Amino acid sequence: MSSTRLPPRPLLVLRSALFSLVMITTVLVFAPLVVLMVPFPFEWRYAVATRWARLNLRWLKLTCRLGYEVEGRENIPTRASIVFSKHQSAWETLALQEIFPPQVWVLKRELLWLPFFGWALALLEPIAIDRKAGRKAVQQLVDQGCRRLEKGRWVVVFPEGTRVAPGTRGRYRIGGAVLAERSGALVVPVAHNAGEYWRRRAFIKYPGTIRVVIGPPIETRGKTAQQILAEAEKWIEATMEKITTLG
């Protein structure tokens, strides 16, 4: 991303401020709305919550001139599967909701304690784990993940666990692969370069087009968790080398 192609910094700040203002404001509207829908089925609550994500993706494109394109949609299976996604930004937490079928997320259970926002998250039935529990956390992921998959819901996993900068990789963790081994669900690897435009812990969003690449599903039956994780990591990181433009 050459600095000569970027708008003046004051304009970038203004656009990013406008985006953030609406994003925060809409959370204050949608989170209580989801909470009020507690008597209704999951599908209804999820539909309302994803409207928030879609609204903000469109607002992001309008204000910050930041859009995205997807390659490999034909690789999305027809049955509930496990998404292994690269994690560089807050952007993918919005976009994966638009790209894939109804899904649940693996997250730390402390998030569910936040007023309204956390309560709304809880009503979307995420896989909430205690990260301090060590091996028990993996079992929590497996137990809850298998139940979600049986209900026909996709499971989104960020195997690196935390956001990483463009051009780098984190340590791929075994939990999602153990779920894949135990459940027999397909693993769908996803690579993207969102971190080049919406950087971790950064306020400014840069204009451009994020590339998202969905890989061929990885068959998990008859494979160990280590084999599944290694296969997913190899595909994701090889694809990242092709689409990353910043070091």
Structure description:
This protein is of the alpha/beta class and 247 residues long. The protein has a single domain, classed as Glycerol-3-phosphate (1)-acyltransferase. Helix content is 45%, strand content 15%. The protein has helices at residues 9-36, 42-64, 91-99, 117-123, 135-150, 175-183, 225-243; strands at residues 66-71, 82-85, 103-108, 127-129, 154-157, 187-192, 208-214. A 7-stranded mixed sheet has the order 1-7-6-2-5-3-4, with helices on both faces. Helix 1 packs antiparallel against helix 2 (42-64), helix 5 (135-150) packs across helix 6 (175-183) and helix 6 (175-183) crosses helix 7 (225-243). The longest helix has 28 residues, at 9-36. The N and C termini lie close together (11 Å).
**Whole-number mean pLDDT:** 93
The CATH topology label is: Glycerol-3-phosphate (1)-acyltransferase
Gyration radius, in Å: 18 Å
Structural class: alpha/beta
Low-confidence stretches: none
Total number of domains: 1
Number of strands: 7
CATH architecture identity: 3-Layer(aba) Sandwich
Briefly summarize what is shown.
This protein has 247 residues and is an alpha/beta fold.
Keywords, separated by commas or semicolons:
247 residues, alpha/beta, Glycerol-3-phosphate (1)-acyltransferase
